[in-house]
Every structure is written in structure tokens, then in C-alpha cells.
## 1
Amino acid sequence: MKAKQVHGDPKTFVVVLATDEEASEQLLAFAKQYRPGSASFTGIGAFQKCVLGYFDWYEKRYLENPIDDQVEVLSLVGNLSWVKDEPKLHAHVVVGRRDGTAHGGHLLKGWVRPTLEVVLVESPAHLQRQLDPQSKIPLIRLDASQPGKEQP
């Protein structure tokens, strides 16, 4: 992974991943190194294989949909926030196969080939997540994102 800050206000970074790097791990490593308060991101590139997730409301877990083929990353969108002092990635991806069919879902894992180019823009508010008792997943808490400010 290579990363560079390309703009100062708001902080904007370009992160470029190379063949065999796992996208989720590398984006979390970026967050730990550069420590953006929170960010939104978009990306394009390709995966040699990936695992997409579908959140099953009744089972309260992500069902895994592996794709073991080379695919184009047609759209990668998501956000980066924090749970206590650990970065949390929430990313959705649409990938395209050779025959033009598309598959989408949560990005659980994606092994890059040959590149993944991601642009991250830091948010002005530092977003925090907290475990939601109904879904059993950490959701953004706006009232926890800006300490001392109540949300209506």
C-alpha cells in the first residue's frame, strides 16, 4: 500500500493498493497510520478474488458470497469511523465479471490484482460507532461523534 495526502482542507488522501494486498486490511492499516478522524471513500480497480457480504437481519450476521474470479471493481464506496480507539471500515462494492454481470454487497475481503485506487476525504466530525442492540452490529452514533453536543 502506498498513501499520500493530496489536499489539506479537508484532508484528502489517495491510497493505492498493489497485487495480492487485501483491501480491507490495508485500508484499516492506513487508518491506524494516518489517523483520520473519520472519512468517506471511493475506489476503482480490480480483485483477483473477493468475498462479498449480505447482512441477514434474522441471523444477525453477514452471509458470505465468495467470488473466486478476476473481477473489475466498478464501484467501491464507504466510510471509516472509530469504535473506541480502533478504526471501523464500512464498505460496499459492486464488481463486474468478464461476461458483464455484476455482483454487489459489503466488502468483507478483496485481494487486489493489479491495483485498487482509493480516494479518502476526512469528515469534519469524528464519527464514532456503538453496538446496536437490535442488529448486533456497530452503527454510527451521531450523539457520540461530537462530545458535548446533543442531537435532536
## 2
Amino acid sequence: MQDDFVIVIDTREQRPYCFKGAVTKALAAGDYSVVGMEDHVAVERKSKQDCYSSLGKDRARLKREFERLSEYDYAAMVIEASLSDFLRPPGFSQMRPSSAINTLISWSVKYGVHVFFADSRHLARALTYRILQQCHRHLGGRQ
């Protein structure tokens, strides 16, 4: 299978990564996908602050996103923080770090959504690229 693929960036993504040749269009779930695989592959990007906010006051919305992602052949959430950094909550959050990580692990198992921690935005971008590349390589013929 050819390894050339085009990344799709959701129109609602507030801080999109830069990928050569990427296109922007509305995605039903997630922030990133691959052209032709939009209903099969998705990567949701979260900053640490956004993740804590989503697990707290926007919990119902985030749970619905996990439910949508569970219908995909492959879905992931990439968090722009190392695990040790994530376990130090942002100043605004009253959520205990153990509650945040336990929810992510529970929903990851329940909904089959892979959760990755990346030490920086730069590494999270690289990880997102590699995830989409491997999805294209291994799942490209399924749709």
C-alpha cells in the first residue's frame, strides 16, 4: 500500500497542528483524520488545561465524544503533557489528579479509545502524525 496520505483537520480545531498538504473540513468526531477514512479513524487533541476542563465542567460532552469515537476502527486522544505533568492539575481545576487519570483509563478501556501523553505540543504533533500514518498503512483498505 502506498504510504502517501492526506491529513484532515477539523474546522473546529482551535489550535491546529501544521501538516504539509493537510485539508480542513468538519469531522463528526476528533480533531484529525485521514482523507477517505474520516468515519473510521480519529485523533482527539487536548492540552492539559482543556483536558481537565473537559473532565470537569464539560464532562458530559467529553463522554459523548468518547462514545462517538468508540464507533471508529481506531480512535485516540493525544494529550499535550507528560503523565507526570498531567498529574499536577492546572491552578483553576479542583479535580483531583487521581480522578482525572482514573476517568481517562476507565473510558479508554470502556470505549476502546487509546490515550497517549506527549511531553510537549511538538511531540504531540509528531505522535498524531505517526498514529494517522499507521492507521492509513494498516487500516486504509478497510473503508
